[in-house]
């Protein structure tokens, strides 16, 4: 009782400090701030305090006497300043000048009050965290739930503020969104990750419609903007982003268009959309890699089928290593899978052994040819070349968005994913780009593209891989592989709402915690007495992950987690009326890599020429991105594609319409999962 009276008396005597402390405490509670931020606010008052003390020390003696600023040596004046301010405040209040009283005491009272408020807030949180605070044992859980709501509201307010959260922070980190809550990570207003984390493997897990693609889009833009900035500063190689969207269909085309707009705003000059607008040529691979890739693309079994696999390998090798040079297109390759053709070719070079192998494998050659014919029909023209130079390479663009029809035709998507990663792995050997490969909706192709193999291969090539899956199970076929994938995600794991976060929670590890039991005092409230014991608790609260809203994500990195609200990137809208005929730089920008000619137009100074730096400042005023049908039309006119990709007879496209879905989302609310 005496203690309580003393505390109340002290609070009354230091009324201004008490008032500011209460305000600071309430504000921290209301905003859900960690105490660190309250103390940081107190630190911001330091200039005011220094100015005040400086004025007191330097004030001329005459003026001091006139204004009653107090006597004494300068050091005495400084020491006595808080007391004199306090006494002056009461005097001014007594004379009916409350505003002057507030001004007189503000300099010492505001920082002291904020620090006191922050200390009280830290103590309150500690009591609640350890289960010792509140009226009942349920209070800590209710307090935590309320704090979560406050923290989410604060993060959403920051997201909604115009111009908040630019893509790159001042230190060059990639800002993903507004931080909601951090545990064992540095707490700040925004959640940002260093560029280096995007150069390491990452995993994204979240149920359908929770915002995986939206998160990835922001990470891609951040990778591009930060990578280009480093490239311009001469501290890194030029970035290359390759996205394999394994969903397919109209929704993938929409995301592709959004990606292009967002990446353009981030500084990328060109985003190639495969296979709609640009192609890649498998035939650019050197012969030894070509044989491996071609054999990988055909599914083959074990046991009795292994014999057939060996025969096929021998025949494919003969076709690829034919004396006239490696094949340049699928048509060329299929022509070679003919016993007579091969026999004549090898006979002319005097290779009798090869001719005898060809003669003995005549029947098998027919089968191999049939299988490859079916494969090329499946793969489509996107990986082929006409033999006239069409079929680009990854070097042709800053970003490649590859649409794989994983939902409609799984086998096709699997084969395409396999071929594209092989092509990229070969391209990575050149070592002139910093490559990020992202496989969105990985589970669609996981059967033929074992992710851990991709990871291991990528690591040796200096290539970073991001994969997204709808669940923990979608990451790989077996539990062993899933653990391997998650454990090697050195860039962190992004967890959106998912019903099974426990494996990732296990990876995140534990933190020290205190658990308190409280004594029940009969019918009344719980007593203050009890027992506490120190132990450990998981860093990642799985129930919180199960409750996340669309657009909220938990970033797990090492032994810490940060919950954040993603700031969605929308990119500039297309302008109505600027059709495919816009031509010029814009036209080239849109169709890189679709053919050697188009690539040349897109890079007048070569892929690494000075033009590459121009993108950094954005492309203000340049031609906008048109919807895909318009671009496809421009391809069909500019690129004479054999193999059925172009649409020479197609009617000229009308004026493109802008993608207004994001505006509608903002206006009427987004789809909620
Ligand atoms: N950060 C966000 N802010 C606002 N809305 C969002 C955010 N993230 C996602 N959404 C909304 O949720 C919808 C689905 O998002 P998105 O396509 O990114 O989810 P997804 O997990 O990739 O879905 P799917 O599994 O179907 O591919 C978006 O169209 C958008 O309306
Ligand atoms: Mg998606």
Report on the architecture of this protein.
A hairpin with a 6-residue loop joins strand 1 and strand 2. This protein has an eleven-stranded mixed sheet with strand order 2-1-13-12-9-3-8-7-4-6-5, with helices on both faces. The chain is elongated. With 673 residues, the chain is α/β, with parallel strands linked by helices. Helix 4 crosses helix 6 and helix 12 runs antiparallel to helix 13. It has 27 helices and 13 strands. Among the domains are: 147 residues, no CATH class; 101 residues; 78 residues, no CATH class. Adenosine-5'-triphosphate binds next to helix 10.
Q: Count of helices?
A: 27
Physical arrangement of strands within the biggest beta sheet: 2-1-13-12-9-3-8-7-4-6-5
Bound molecules: adenosine-5'-triphosphate, magnesium ion
Q: What is the tally of beta strands?
A: 13
Structural class: alpha/beta
How large, in whole angstroms, is the Cα Rg? 33 Å
Helical coverage, percent range: 40-55%
Distance between the termini: 53 Å
Largest sheet: 11 strands, mixed
Query: What characteristic shape results from the CA principal axes?
Result: elongated
Q: Give average pLDDT, whole number.
A: 81
InterPro entries: P-loop_NTPase
Biased composition (Pro residues): 649-658
Region (Disordered): 505-530, 598-673
Biased composition (Gly residues): 612-621
């Amino acid at each position: 009782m005496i203690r309580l009276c003393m505390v109340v008396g002290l609070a009354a005597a230091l009324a201004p400090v008490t008032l500011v402390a209460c305000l600071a405490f309430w504000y921290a509670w209301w905003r859900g701030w960690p105490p660190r931020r309250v103390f940081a606010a107190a630190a911001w008052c330091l200039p005011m305090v220094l100015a005040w003390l400086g004025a007191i020390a330097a004030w001329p003696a005459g003026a001091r006497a006139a204004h009653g600023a107090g006597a004494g040596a300068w050091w005495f004046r400084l020491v006595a300043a808080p007391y004199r301010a306090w006494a002056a405040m009461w005097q001014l209040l007594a004379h009916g000048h409350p505003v002057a009283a507030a001004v007189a005491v503000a300099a010492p009272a505001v920082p002291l009050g904020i620090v006191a408020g922050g200390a009280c807030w830290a103590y309150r949180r500690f009591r609640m965290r350890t289960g010792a605070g509140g009226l009942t044992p349920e209070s800590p859980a209710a307090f935590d739930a309320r704090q979560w709501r406050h923290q989410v509201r604060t993060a959403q307010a920051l997201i909604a503020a115009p111009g908040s959260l630019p893509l790159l922070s001042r230190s060059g980190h990639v800002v993903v969104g507004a931080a909601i809550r951090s545990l064992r990570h540095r707490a700040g207003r925004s959640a940002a990750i260093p560029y280096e984390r995007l150069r390491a493997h990452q995993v994204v897990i979240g149920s359908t419609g929770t915002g995986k693609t939206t998160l990835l889009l922001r990470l891609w833009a951040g990778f591009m903007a930060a990578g280009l900035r480093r490239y311009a500063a001469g501290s890194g190689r030029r970035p290359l982003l390759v996205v394999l969207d394994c969903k397919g269909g109209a929704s993938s085309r929409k995301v592709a268009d959004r990606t292009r707009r967002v990446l353009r705003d981030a500084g990328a000059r060109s985003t190639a959309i495969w296979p709609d607008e640009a192609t890649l040529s498998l035939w650019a691979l050197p012969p030894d890699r070509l044989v491996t890739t071609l054999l990988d693309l055909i599914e083959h079994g074990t046991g009795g089928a292994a014999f057939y696999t060996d025969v096929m390998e021998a025949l494919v090798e003969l076709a690829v290593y034919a004396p006239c040079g490696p094949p340049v297109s699928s048509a060329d390759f299929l022509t070679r899978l003919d016993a007579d053709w091969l026999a004549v070719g090898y006979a002319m070079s005097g290779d009798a052994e090869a001719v005898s192998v060809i003669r003995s494998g005549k029947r098998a050659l027919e089968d191999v040819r049939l299988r490859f014919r079916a494969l090329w029909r499946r793969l489509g023209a996107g990986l082929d070349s006409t033999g006239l130079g069409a079929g680009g390479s990854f070097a042709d663009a800053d970003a490649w968005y590859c649409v794989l029809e994983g939902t409609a035709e799984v086998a096709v998507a699997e084969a395409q994913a396999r071929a594209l990663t092989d092509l990229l792995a070969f391209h990575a050997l050149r070592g002139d780009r910093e490559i990020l490969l992202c496989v969105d909706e990985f589970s669609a192709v996981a059967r033929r593209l074992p992710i851990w193999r991709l990871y291991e291969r990528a690591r040796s090539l200096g290539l970073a891989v991001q994969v997204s899956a709808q669940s923990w199970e979608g990451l790989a076929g077996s539990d062993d592989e899933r653990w391997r994938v998650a454990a090697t995600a050195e860039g962190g794991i992004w967890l959106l709402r998912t019903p099974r976060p426990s494996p990732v929670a296990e990876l995140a590890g534990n933190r020290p915690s205190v658990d308190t039991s409280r004594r029940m005092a009969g019918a009344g409230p719980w007593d203050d007495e009890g027992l506490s014991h120190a132990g450990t608790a998981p860093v990642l609260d799985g129930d919180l992950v199960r409750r996340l809203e669309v657009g909220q994500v938990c970033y797990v990195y090492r032994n810490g987690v940060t919950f954040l609200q993603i700031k969605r990137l929308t990119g500039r809208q297309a302008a109505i009326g600027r059709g495919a005929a816009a031509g010029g730089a814009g036209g080239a920008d849109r169709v890189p890599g679709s053919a050697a000619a188009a690539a040349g137009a897109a890079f007048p100074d070569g892929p690494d020429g000075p033009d590459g730096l121009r993108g950094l400042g954005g492309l203000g005023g340049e031609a906008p991105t048109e919807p895909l049908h318009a671009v496809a039309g421009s391809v069909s006119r500019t690129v004479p594609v054999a193999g059925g990709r172009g649409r020479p007879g197609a009617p000229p496209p009308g004026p493109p319409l802008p993608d207004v879905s994001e505006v509608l989302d903002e206006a009427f609310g987004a789809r909620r999962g």
